[in-house]
Amino acid sequence: MILGWLFELPGGAAIVEILVFxxxxxxxxxxxxxxxxxxxxxxxxxxxLGVIISFTILIESxxxxxxxVVFENFRDIAVLGLIVVFQPxxxxxxxxxGESPLFSPFLRREVKxxxxxxxxxxxxxxxxxxxxxxxxxxxxxxxxxxxGVALDAELNSYLIESIFYTGTxxxxxxxxxxxxxxxxxxxxLPLSQSxxxxxxxxxxxxxxxxxxxxxxxxxxxVSEETGKISTALHGKLRHGISLExxxxxxxxxxxxxxxx
Length: 260
Hints:
Blueprint: H1 2-8, H2 12-31, H3 38-62, H4 65-85, H5 87-98, H6 111-126, E1 131-135, H7 142-145, E2 149-154, H8 157-164, E3 174-178, E4 181-187, H9 203-214, E5 218-222, E6 229-233, E7 236-241, H10 243-254
Parallel strand pairs: 1-3
Antiparallel strand pairs: 1-5, 2-4, 3-4, 5-6, 6-7
């Protein structure tokens, strides 16, 4: 009914096309919002949307047949170019979609996994062993896992200590946790460019904050110098928290409160 009314209006077809483009771009941005290329894609999409709207209105208003042909050809080439340029980000988004609860049974994170993680962090903190642990939530961290060494091991405190023990091959970089599995080690994370971060904090803290700015992951840092524990989530860094505060943060972030 509404679409029929729009088509009867002068330039109604153009309005419908604009709405379709807008809804499509919005859906794509929502789909890619946790990937590393989301910011770039968002900017280009705004520019592309503006160009499409401007040319569509111009062509429909003045019935410019030749310009229509040129514009349609350019539009097809631009879409193909974007697919080629952002192929890695698109691949990561497809991987994330395949891991969505919509397409696979929800894997419940058991409380024992939380306790193993806390025990490992407590030992690292006590012995002043530096660590960087990224816990995957809804957004996939597969792109960051690919930058390190892929693993598939049950999460336990002894393995956490072994990975970060000074001198081992995997102690540099981040460990990535997915559910109750350790899926990556020695992974590279993006460094935050925030100017408000305390300059006394090192690269691990900047990497933890950087990941939290680009994804919804929860990242845990253990300082090599002081043994203090920090967390980064939603672009905010909490420094020097207790184990009890860490436990509450993990429970809240992963929806474990009230379980067990």
